């Protein structure tokens, strides 16, 4: 009988859209659908495909009982316009179409914050020492297409609040001669250089370009994927140096974030880049740069730095938001 209740989950970027169905009774994700944004002219057409799949099920109800959509763009009001695609979501209209009492539309990195609070030991890899303090703030940052940042703050009711922000756009603050030279070089292209200019996919290309300029060599055509591939294989010294600089800067920014928000509950590194480079991250200076804050080194030393490795963490975070609000 088609009466089993389910939640609609989505993690939508400019290139890929991931949808999932979660059993409302168990909270388990049972089906996932990974779609290419380019294959669907609108968000509604992509969602219609997912709902068609649900219709073919012998047990799911036709419409969800709750939903959370994580989207790669600012969420300010009911009309959500995607930054890197022509898709638009009208949250209020969609909620009505789906006959939902509630429909959450949140920034995709806010979903990472909801995911971080519910991770288990197999969902992350720790770099260096440290152990989280219970009931303390957690900071999350993630280099990917851009640099996402958010904070998870526990409340007095035993729950938590995810505080999204735009911390990826803070100023890049170099701490050694090479980074000063990289900053000065990048300022030829960008009058203001943010952390995201280095800590993102295009940031890897920017670092590589700056190093080429400083060494007086021409930059061949590169992509973030090629740079990471060459760095891992050891086939290109400049690619490896690029990744080494990336991790040193990431460690510095992560340490700054931990100091700013008092993240004694831990710092989690999300996004698609770092998990692919774990081998280098373990051997590199990320953790040392995280700690290198002078008199505050002892404050930072107990704080763990963990790389999130859970697949589809955005969908997982969307599910945690629904779980959290149905139990409070």
What does this structure look like?
This protein is α/β, with parallel strands linked by helices. The radius of gyration is 21 Å and the shape is globular. The longest helix is centred in the C-terminal third of the chain and has 25 residues, at 237-261. The chain has a six-stranded mixed β-sheet, with helices on both faces. It has a five-stranded mixed β-sheet with strand order 3-2-1-4-7, sandwiched between helices. Helix content is 36%, strand content 21%.
Task: Give a quick summary of the entry.
This protein is α/β, with parallel strands linked by helices and 328 residues long. It has helices at 43-55, 91-97, 108-116, 177-186, 201-215, 224-233, 237-261, 278-283, 286-291, 297-300, 313-326, and strands spanning 6-12, 16-23, 29-36, 66-71, 79-81, 88-90, 104-107, 124-127, 138-143, 147-154, 160-164, 267-269, 305-308.
């Amino acid at each position: 009988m088609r009466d089993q209740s389910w939640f609609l989950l989505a993690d939508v970027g400019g290139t890929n859209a991931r949808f999932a169905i979660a059993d409302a009774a168990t909270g388990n994700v049972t089906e996932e659908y990974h779609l290419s944004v380019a294959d669907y002219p609108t968000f509604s057409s992509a969602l219609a495909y997912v709902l068609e799949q649900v219709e073919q099920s012998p047990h799911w109800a036709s419409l969800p009982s709750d939903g959370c959509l994580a989207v790669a763009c600012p969420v300010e009001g009911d009309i959500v316009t995607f930054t890197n695609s022509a898709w638009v979501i009208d949250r209020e209209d969609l909620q009505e179409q789906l006959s939902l009492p509630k429909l959450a539309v949140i920034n995709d990195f806010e979903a990472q914050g909801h995911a971080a609070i519910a991770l288990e030991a197999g969902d992350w890899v720790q770099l260096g020492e440290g152990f989280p303090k219970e009931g303390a703030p957690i900071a999350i940052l993630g280099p990917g297409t851009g640099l996402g940042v958010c904070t998870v703050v526990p409340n007095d009711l035993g729950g938590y609040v995810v505080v999204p922000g735009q911390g990826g756009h803070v100023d890049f603050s170099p701490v050694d001669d090479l980074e000063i030279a990289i900053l000065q070089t990048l300022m030829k292209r960008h009058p203001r250089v943010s952390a995201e200019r280095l800590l993102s996919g295009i940031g890897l290309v920017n670092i590589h370009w700056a190093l080429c300029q400083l060494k007086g060599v021409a930059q061949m055509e590169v992509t973030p994927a090629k740079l990471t591939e060459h760095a891992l294989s050891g086939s290109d010294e400049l690619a490896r140096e690029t990744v080494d600089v990336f991790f040193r800067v990431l460690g510095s920014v992560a340490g700054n974030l931990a100091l700013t928000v008092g993240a004694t509950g831990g710092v989690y590194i999300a996004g698609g880049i770092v998990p692919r480079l774990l081998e280098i991250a373990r051997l590199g200076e990320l953790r040392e740069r995280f700690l290198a804050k002078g008199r505050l080194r002892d404050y930072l030393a107990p704080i763990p730095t963990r790389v999130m490795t859970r697949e589809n963490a955005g969908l997982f975070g969307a599910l945690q938001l629904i779980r959290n609000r149905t139990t409070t």
